[in-house]
Design goal:
Elements: E1 5-8, H1 14-23, E2 28-33, H2 36-45, E3 50-54, H3 60-68, E4 77-82, H4 98-126, E5 130-134, H5 147-167, E6 173-179, H6 186-190, H7 195-201, H8 210-221, E7 231-234
Helix pairs in contact: 1-8, 3-4, 4-5
Length: about 250
């Protein structure tokens, strides 16, 4: 019997790449991302069947064209991991850059919707599937200078709850994974490539890793058919909430 298919967005780095490496044990994979060279490298290193889709989740037409390009034997996506997401800038609301706002809303909210819309008809027809939305502690709390990023993740939380209600009659599971501080490229992107500033975010304590989050994703998608793990808040032991982190814990 063929292994089930998992589609992962933002698969070229961080949590997406780590999830691909873990799910490869028991799934065929559709890996999606903007950087074709990284997609190619990761695919060569995985011991499973892989299809690659090169698109930006912000571009609605590209999302639908990419999904529709899949051959019939790759269309029964059982697990969708909506991982693509970013933070851009960290400014007081009156000093924020509207281009940063657009990027966060377009990727974190609209991108999740576009990919889900492309995949869900097959899941509802089969009455089977599992959507995993990668959100954040910022989906529950707001921190200084996090305004629009937090708003976008609050939207992901609302969409996850709405999906769970709307898809319940079809037996489709919907899970939200909500990490705190995870050491990936996240802060470097947020701070426009300022590596030193990004590094300081994780100094003085042991943050979560992408692998930690990927292990949790593997756990929730491997539960029996009758078990839904709805929401998982993940924090480093040193982190109490969005703003309280013990940076003297190493």
């Amino acid at each position: 019997m063929d292994k089930p298919i998992a589609l992962i967005t933002g698969a070229t780095s961080g949590i997406g790449e780590a999830t691909a490496r873990i799910l490869a044990k028991n799934h065929r994979l559709i890996l999606c991302g903007r950087r074709q060279d990284r997609l190619d490298r990761i695919a060569q290193e995985l011991d499973t069947e892989v299809r690659l889709l090169n698109f930006d989740v912000r571009e609605r037409a590209d999302v639908f064209a990419a999904i529709e390009s899949l051959p019939p034997e790759w269309r029964e996506v059982e697990v969708l991991v909506n991982n693509a997401g970013n933070a851009h800038g960290m400014d007081l609301i009156h000093e924020g850059d509207p281009d940063d706002w657009d990027a966060m809303i377009d990727i974190n909210v609209k991108g999740l919707l576009y990919v889900s819309k492309a995949i869900l008809p097959g899941m509802t027809e089969r009455k089977s599937g599992h959507i995993v939305n990668i959100s954040s502690i910022a989906g529950f709390e707001v921190y200084p200078k996090g305004n629009v990023y937090c708003a976008s993740k609050h939207a992901v939380d609302a969409l996850t709850k709405g999906m769970r209600l709307d898809l319940n009659p079809f037996g489709i599971k919907v899970t939200s994974i909500d990490p705190g501080l995870v050491e990936t490229e996240f802060s470097e992107v947020r701070f426009k490539g300022d590596k030193e500033r990004a590094k300081n975010v994780y100094k003085g304590f042991t943050p979560l890793t992408a692998h930690d989050v990927a292990q949790t994703i593997e756990f929730v998608v491997s539960r029996p058919r009758h078990v839904l793990v709805g929401d998982v808040l993940m924090l480093a032991t040193a982190q109490a909430n969005s703003t309280i982190v013990n940076k003297n814990s190493q």
